[in-house]
Specification:
It comes from Sinimarinibacterium flocculans. Helix 5 crosses helix 6 and helix 7 runs antiparallel to helix 8. It is built from 10 helices and 14 strands. Strands 1-4-3-2-5-6 form a 6-stranded parallel beta sheet.
């Protein structure tokens, strides 16, 4: 799958596409319906299945303090879209100039003129252009005038739950991993590259593999039973672990980090691209009065994770 960072970097030789537009944060079942239909139309029309997404999201741009947490990382989104057959992901920087595009100009200049769309697939609540003035009636009219198809996909429900980004975030905020899995269609996970950290875990007897998160996560901060799997090694097995997702208040820090201790394995993961799959919520993040108190709790968390996997394999 091709990753294009901004419409200005789209090659002139890119050719026509069938497009879907959205943040696709978490690629839940509702997103999957849009993407599957996009891939289907692209194959029929002989065009590239293309996703147009935004960074930051429009809600983050207009109201960063009230914007919701992120369900997934960019690497996770790339993994999901590639698996579904998307040919190209365009990550467009959302800024004042882009937000000012009037609805008709957005379609004629960007979608038709730049992207050469032969079709577009959108949800039944899709709005576009400055002040969200464009609606489905306008989009269908512009499709007739400019020679592209418009396909509108209705909402998706699973076991009585409407599959939406809001519903996924609510499940994650409550650390309800089973409900999140039902909405997404797979176990919840975060994907990223392991970076070096303070090495505090090693000093406390529990070395960790650290994944730094650029955006505030939707998942409740706390300690989880997890499985970690390398994505840059073919056939790598999932390793059991215990992970802390948080800002490390005991150390007075504020940047969110996912720190995973692999159980029973001494592995060097620095620089590796990994998937951390969340299995069970153990406890919320807490501030401790001393490093000794923190270390003692970390080892209790480790014991709880070991008990989880022991019970599962019994």
């Amino acid at each position: 799958m091709e990753l294009v960072r901004g419409l200005h970097n789209l090659p002139d030789t890119a050719g026509p596409c069938v497009l879907t537009i959205g943040n696709f944060d978490g690629v839940h079942r509702g997103h999957q319906a849009l993407i599957s239909r996009t891939v289907e139309h692209a194959r029929r029309l002989g065009a590239a299945a293309t996703v147009l997404s935004f960074e930051p999201t429009p809600r983050e741009y207009f109201s960063r303090e009230r914007a919701p947490g992120r369900v997934s990382t960019l690497r996770g989104k790339l993994l999901d879209l590639h698996a579904m057959g998307v040919a190209r992901l365009i990550v467009q920087r959302f800024h004042r100039g882009f937000a000012a595009y009037e609805a008709v100009a957005f379609v004629r200049e960007l979608l038709v003129g730049r992207l050469q769309i032969r079709g577009i697939v959108v949800g039944d609540d899709f709005r576009f252009g400055a002040r969200r003035a464009g609606d489905l009636t306008l989009l269908r009219r512009l499709g007739r005038e400019n020679g592209f198809e418009v396909d509108v996909v209705g909402g998706v429900e699973h076991d009585g739950l409407r599959c939406s980004s809001t519903a996924v975030r609510e499940a994650l905020a409550a650390a309800d991993l089973r409900r999140a899995q039902a909405l997404i269609g797979r176990p919840y996970r975060l994907v990223g590259r392991i970076r070096s950290g303070l090495r505090l875990g090693r000093r406390l007897g529990m070395p960790t593999a650290n994944l730094s998160l650029q955006r505030r996560p939707a998942l409740r901060l706390g300690v989880y039973v997890v499985e970690l799997r390398r994505l840059d090694v073919d056939g790598a097995a999932a390793l059991p672990g215990v992970a802390n997702l948080g800002v490390r208040p005991t150390l007075g820090l504020t940047r969110c980090l996912l720190e995973t201790h692999v159980l029973g394995h001494d592995v060097n993961l620095y620089g590796a691209c990994v998937e951390v799959r969340f299995r069970e919520f153990l406890r919320p993040e807490a501030r401790f009065e001393s490093l000794d108190a923190l270390a003692a709790q970390m080892h209790r968390d480790k014991d709880a994770a070991l008990a989880f996997f022991a019970a599962e394999s019994a």
